[in-house]
Amino acid sequence: MTRTIIAAAVASTAGLALAQSDPAVLSFTYSDLNGSFDGSTFSADAQGSTSGDVTRLDQGATTADFNSNFVNTSLANAEFDISVSNVQNFAFGPFSATATGMGAFTLTDANGDTISGDLSGQWFRSTDGQLFFNGFTSGVTINAADKSFDGEGGTGFSTNFLGTPILDGTLVVLSFDPSFTIFSAPFSDISTQISGRLVPTPGAAAILGLAGLAGTRRRR
After folding, report:
1. pLDDT at 133
2. Beta strand residue intervals within 60-218, DSSP E
3. Which of 45-59, 147-161, 168-182 has the weakest average pLDDT?
């Protein structure tokens, strides 16, 4: 359900999408993160009710699963911080307001290994009160001492890649609460859904070309 809603958000707002020729290597989705705004930065962090998954797509879709309460039972976490600037409000049109955002994210597995990177993009508030961030990830790095990204119950995937890929991609943040206007005042405890897809940058795409092509053929 979350993936469907987020896909619709991309299509209805900025329309950001991965190029067809860029094979996605990793994807992630987290539901019911705790969203808050302190007056300058929007943050979304895992809480007890958060669940999620991180999937390596070029190995037949192997997944690290994180069930509800994972943040309290392991080292796993998901943290997103995105600044808010250039807020513009509109009296008419499909959006009631927009803003610019930049920041960073870190996904942590059950053993403390991380996937992290930078974020940049655009905030939108629809006229029905839903808040979106459509943006790009850059400079994504994987820090896994045990060469795997581990979920709960033995789920996970190898972080061994051909070469050392530099990963970029797209990210969508979606929050639901029709009661607040976009960043006009601090808020907290807003249920937030986040989804992203990571692809090799052009310099790494050649190294991963064969694996990426095989993954694309399996998904079609």
Report:
1. 94
2. 62-66, 77-83, 85-89, 95-108, 114-126, 130-143, 148-150, 156-158, 167-176, 187-200
3. 168-182
Structure tokens at 92: 């008419």
DSSP 184: S
Query: Which pair of structure tokens corresponds to residue 37?
Result: 């705004």
| Burial tier of 36 (Cβ tally within 10 Å: 0-12, 13-18, 19+) | middle
- 200, containing H or E segment: strand 187-200
Q: How far is CA 115 from the centre of its chain?
A: 11
Confidence band of 4 (pLDDT split at 50, 70, 90)? very low
Contact 94, 132 (CB under 8 A): no
Residue 11 has pLDDT above 70, yes or no: no
Evaluated on CA atoms 105, 107, 113, 117, the torsion sign reads: negative
Structure-block tokens of residue 175: 């929050």
